[in-house]
Design goal:
Layout (H helix, E strand, L loop, with lengths): L9 H24 L7 H13 L28 H15 L1 H5 L6 H9 L2 H7 L4 E4 L15 E5 L2 E12 L6 E7 L9 E7 L5 E6 L10 E12 L3 E2 L11 H34 L15 H28 L5 H25 L2 H4 L5 H9 L8 H13 L8
Parallel strand pairs: 1-4
Antiparallel strand pairs: 2-3, 3-7, 4-5, 5-8, 6-7
Helix pairs in contact: 1-3, 3-7, 3-8, 5-7, 7-8, 7-9, 7-11, 8-9, 9-11, 9-12
The structure holds flavin-adenine dinucleotide.
The site of flavin-adenine dinucleotide has 21 residues, from strand 1, strand 3 and helix 12.
């Protein structure tokens, strides 16, 4: 087992770190203060990223973390592909700023969904889009099987009706991947996802949220009133396969949950690095000393660092499994549960360890504590990830273990 970051991605990691340090950090506070203002500086960066990705076998970004992004190398042994490169990039970029990463054009979770389930023709059509992901509704959050937005077939179109809330990049993205049911009576199997481009008649952004953290990222409510989309915008299989149930649309999470865990690892590393610097003024930080003989502050930092490392390794394993075409739903949920929890604890403890510096807006520590909370909520909360892990371990279905 090799627990190092893959050698071939070191260049990418270095580049992502420099972007985080020189591009994100200097504007971090500015967009924390200016909620709902688009960080226009990102346009240039997104164009650069598009250039880096064009023709690169190991692209970075949400769209490369998918089944298609799995390593192409068929030789036996360790294989690392798009899932690992996207994860490593995300970790570094979120060391810079989670909100700004989420606000990056063409890096939406809808892009990952398109990459995971679109056919070749759809990939061609939607490849250049910036796609948000709309699952949550006023009456449905964790229990995504309770979706009420409907999609009714009408000739070679579907007509969408319903309301989506808390859609990350829902206003700024050029398209939204919308989950809707073809038949409420048929339960999970009837839930399909549709790409709806902004400007489609019947689709309206109705509200922007004011939030605790990730203020650089817009979070929108969107209503669909007789919104007509081409039938060819349905992602995946249009048939209702009761045997396969929810599996089709849920597959996306195997690729996206490790990425959200990676965001948590990035922001937690930022807090640890800064706190270590601040503590160095007062503590020896001699890692060779036994834990019992160091100060409480040092001992706390060492424990947090160990937790962080455990979260990082679990997350890399989940992404590595995806690259090696192994079923990874359990590991993706384990990684997200661990990393989300660790990031929340680390960032808040770092506020505490840094004393007044931790609480002051002169430092970014308080911001990171606010930003990290969402990483334990979206793409499935802490409790839901634990539920999924328990179901997988015990061999229970979602109706047997709720
Ligand atoms: C900033 C932000 C951005 C978001 N972006 C998106 C997005 O882009 N797209 C999108 O579709 N959604 C998005 N969401 C919504 C997010 O995915 C949901 O908030 C999340 O899934 C939880 O749903 P809920 O808020 O309705 O909570 P609920 O499902 O009502 O849960 C409330 C609490 O109960 C717990 N709980 C629920 N069910 C169980 C159970 N069976 N066992 C144990 N505990 C349980 C939950 O863990 C949680 O702690 C976003 C949310 C926020 C805040």
């Amino acid at each position: 087992m090799n627990l190092e970051s893959p050698h071939k991605f070191r260049g990418l990691v270095g580049q992502a770190h420099r972007v985080a340090e020189h591009f994100f950090r200097p504007i971090s506070r500015k967009y924390d203060k200016a909620e709902h203002e688009y960080p226009k500086e990102l346009d240039m960066l997104a164009a650069l990223l598009d250039g880096m990705n064009a023709g690169s076998p190991d692209a970075v970004g949400a769209g490369s973390a998918s089944k298609r992004g799995a390593a192409r190398d068929e030789a036996p042994g360790v294989r690392n592909g798009g899932n690992m490169s996207a994860l490593l990039g995300v970790m570094e970029l979120c060391w810079g700023d989670v909100g700004l990463l989420l606000a990056m054009p063409r890096q939406g979770l809808g892009n990952a969904a398109i990459a995971a389930v679109a056919n070749d023709e759809q990939l061609q059509r939607f490849g250049g889009q910036w796609a948000a992901m709309a699952i949550t509704e006023p009456g449905c959050g964790s229990d995504s099987a309770a979706i009420r937005t409907t999609a009714t077939k009408d000739g070679d179109h579907y007509i969408l009706n319903g309301e989506k809330i808390f859609v990350t990049s829902g206003e700024r993205a050029s398209a939204v991947v919308v989950w809707a049911t073809l038949d409420k009576g048929l339960g999970r199997a009837a839930i399909k996802s549709f790409v709806v481009e902004h400007g489609t008649p019947g689709m309206t952004v109705t509200r922007l949220e004011k939030k605790l953290g990730i203020k650089a990222s817009d979070t929108a409510s969107i209503s669909f009133n007789d919104c007509r989309v081409p039938a060819s915008n349905l992602l995946g299989n249009p048939e209702i396969d009761v045997q396969k149930g929810f599996a089709g649309v849920m597959e996306t999470f195997d690729n996206t949950r490790p990425l959200v865990a990676g965001m948590a690892i990035g922001v937690a590393k930022a807090a640890l690095d800064r706190t270590r610097q601040l503590l160095k003024k007062h503590c020896a930080m001699d890692y060779k000393k036994p834990l019992l003989s160091v100060s409480h502050a040092e001992a706390t930092l060492y424990r947090l660092e160990a937790e962080w490392e455990a979260a990082r390794l679990l997350t890399m394993k989940a992404a590595w499994m995806a690259d090696n075409k192994m079923p990874n739903s359990k590991e993706a949920s384990m990684a997200k549960a661990k990393a989300g929890r660790v990031a929340n604890e680390v960032t808040l403890k770092c506020v505490e360890l840094a004393g007044v510096m931790g609480y002051s807006e002169d430092e970014l520590l308080e911001k990171w504590a606010r930003d990290s909370k969402i990483l334990d909520i979206f793409e499935g909360t802490q409790q839901i990830q634990l539920l999924i892990v328990a179901r997988r371990l015990l061999g229970k279905s979602s109706s047997e273990l709720k």
